[in-house]
Amino acid sequence: MILAAQGLGWVRPGWYPALLGGSLAVLDALGVVYLLRVARLGLNTLSCQVGAVARGLGVVNAVVFLCWVSGGPDWMWWAAAAAHVTGMALLGFSMVLGPLARLSGPHRQAFVAEMTAVGAAAVMIIWWVGLDPVLLTGGPDRDWIILAGLPIADLMLAMAIAAMLLRGVIRHWRDPISVLCAGMTLAILTDTAWVAGLPATAGHATGPGGGIVLIAVHVLLTLSPLMSSSGIGSVTDRPRRTGPPRWVAYLPLGALVTGVGLLLGVIVANAGFVRWSGLIVATVVMIAAIAVRQWLELSSSQARAARDLETGLASRAALKDALAGLVRARETCAVLAVSVPPGGTAPDVLRSCVRADDLVARLGDSTFGVLICDAAVTGEATTVAQRILVSFPDSAIGIAVGRTDEPAKTVLRNAEIALNHARRAGTATFVVYETSMNDRRATDAALAEALEGALQRDEFTLLYQPIVELATRRTVAVEALLRWHHPLHGDVSPGQFIPVAERSGEIVAIGQWVLEEACRQAAAWRADGIDLTVTVNVSPRQLQEPHLARDVLGALERTGLPADCLVVEVTESAMVNEALEIAALRTIRAGGVRIAIDDFGTGYSSLQYLTRLPVDILKIDRSFVAQLDGTAEGSAIAEAVVRLAQILRLTTVAEGIEEEMQARELANLGSQRGQGFLFSRPVPADRIPALAADVTYTGFQQLSA
């Protein structure tokens, strides 16, 4: 239909403006449909939703433009132009949302700085080529809405393109993301050409010649989500991507040199060289020196990343890059993961056991990797393994053969899984990976991959378990508990995914979301007259973040929850960098937030921590509660914790109460509060008001059933 409309426009040029407006409206409407479909699939949900709004503004632009060319009032031209500029700016913004959401702290700030530098250089070129000539000649009044808005829109589009380049997601011209990038690039060029030629180009754009370019832009922008929603993924599988190409690191430096060079060129062209010669020469020398210095620093950083400084061998990252190259080239290869006894001769001995073309890398303290490329790769890999076993009689070796349908990191992980099996054998041996070897490490790796983006896909929810006064059975607080429902894995136990999130670092962003959501919910309960304290667990990884105190106090400020309504809960075993973590907890407590120690009594240094930690609440571990049987022996530890808390004037909360006898005995021992299945299982937020209103044992039992 679109092609037929373009053909009709060449035959009937007078009809073409209306045909162009209708074609653009149809393409943008399809773009909205496919973007929302991609969002429902859970692929970059927020980015696709914002992108759908941007394409919706494109529909508005096309429809209003159609009305204007049909004889509508002059203000319609302004409205169409405003919708176009806003839509392009939103489209660019939608593309940078994903990387910004996945990064945090200094990494996010560095990414924004690099992205802005590259985008700003592009806008400088656009301004000089397109906008400056119009500003000098003083364009028509109605065009100033375009002149004022296009730099912002083009900046967002340029930043989006820079973001895709910097993140290394553009790998093949047939990828949906590459098609989208091409559409945005063409949109920038089209806008620049349009503004540079106003008002003459405006008329040309409504003709078949210029309209073809506009149609091409919108076809590309629509084709990208259509490919994604139809299951046409990246030609290069995402798991195989090992990061952006090395040249991408030099983009911000190139942007700086380009921008300064353009600025100096403008000065020379307009004011002459002689007048500003001193400043120009000094600036050129300074920028050249900075560029050379940064170039050397980047080259040195990349060299350090590819080389293990202690042994001189390749690093894990270098091995993964080389392996990824072989996988993409569909060459046969194998990886050996070798565990050797500690010693300084391992690098030299390993080099002597392999061929000159094979790569030896250091994977860990006493673990090494060998990458072998050969037509008869399995036989060569076992031969190398036998040589290593002769040189290191106490070593263990895992072998994984690369397959054409396996990502590079899967091959390396398979080799390490086989190494674990070799270690369990207890004797010096090598083991070749088989698909039946499914250990915990492989499961954790799969969970780590699934965790990426789970927060953006809204797969996490919070449940709340009441904490009651044991004397009155009145609900006085709740503990926020994180739950994860994955579309493929289903409900994943916190005991499974929390440790994986800790190791991958995803727990930092997830923990911040839990904090914000719990504070928001507690503030909403208070607004409804339900005065409850909310307890939020802080993981060991979060405790190591330098901005933890700021994040906690900031969440209170943003949600309006009073500080005394929040309890931050840590485990005594979470302390790694005590100076940093205790200082953060003291800052949080100084802001009015209370601190609780979870699982108290299970660590080796509980009493030691009590003398230094700013503690308000001790939580008696469920293992001690389970020992309560009405005897002095069964209650000894729980009673000791309660007595210690009374001496230190701390509140006690007993966890894991499942029987009425346990609740009564804890109350007799002096424990003020308790939580457990006896009172309620963890429930959604909408059930807490009913639990808070019921103060009878029967009511609790019924509501938690």
TrEMBL record:
<feature type="domain" description="EAL">
    <location>
        <begin position="444"/>
        <end position="696"/>
    </location>
</feature>
<dbReference type="InterPro" id="IPR029787">
    <property type="entry name" value="Nucleotide_cyclase"/>
</dbReference>
<feature type="transmembrane region" description="Helical">
    <location>
        <begin position="77"/>
        <end position="98"/>
    </location>
</feature>
<keyword id="KW-0812">Transmembrane</keyword>
<dbReference type="InterPro" id="IPR000160">
    <property type="entry name" value="GGDEF_dom"/>
</dbReference>
<dbReference type="InterPro" id="IPR043128">
    <property type="entry name" value="Rev_trsase/Diguanyl_cyclase"/>
</dbReference>
<feature type="transmembrane region" description="Helical">
    <location>
        <begin position="273"/>
        <end position="292"/>
    </location>
</feature>
<feature type="transmembrane region" description="Helical">
    <location>
        <begin position="15"/>
        <end position="36"/>
    </location>
</feature>
<keyword id="KW-1133">Transmembrane helix</keyword>
<dbReference type="Pfam" id="PF00563">
    <property type="entry name" value="EAL"/>
</dbReference>
<feature type="transmembrane region" description="Helical">
    <location>
        <begin position="110"/>
        <end position="129"/>
    </location>
</feature>
<feature type="transmembrane region" description="Helical">
    <location>
        <begin position="144"/>
        <end position="165"/>
    </location>
</feature>
<protein>
    <recommendedName>
        <fullName>EAL domain-containing protein</fullName>
    </recommendedName>
</protein>
<keyword id="KW-0472">Membrane</keyword>
<dbReference type="InterPro" id="IPR001633">
    <property type="entry name" value="EAL_dom"/>
</dbReference>
<feature type="transmembrane region" description="Helical">
    <location>
        <begin position="209"/>
        <end position="226"/>
    </location>
</feature>
<dbReference type="InterPro" id="IPR050706">
    <property type="entry name" value="Cyclic-di-GMP_PDE-like"/>
</dbReference>
<dbReference type="InterPro" id="IPR035919">
    <property type="entry name" value="EAL_sf"/>
</dbReference>
<feature type="transmembrane region" description="Helical">
    <location>
        <begin position="177"/>
        <end position="197"/>
    </location>
</feature>
<feature type="transmembrane region" description="Helical">
    <location>
        <begin position="247"/>
        <end position="267"/>
    </location>
</feature>
<feature type="transmembrane region" description="Helical">
    <location>
        <begin position="48"/>
        <end position="71"/>
    </location>
</feature>
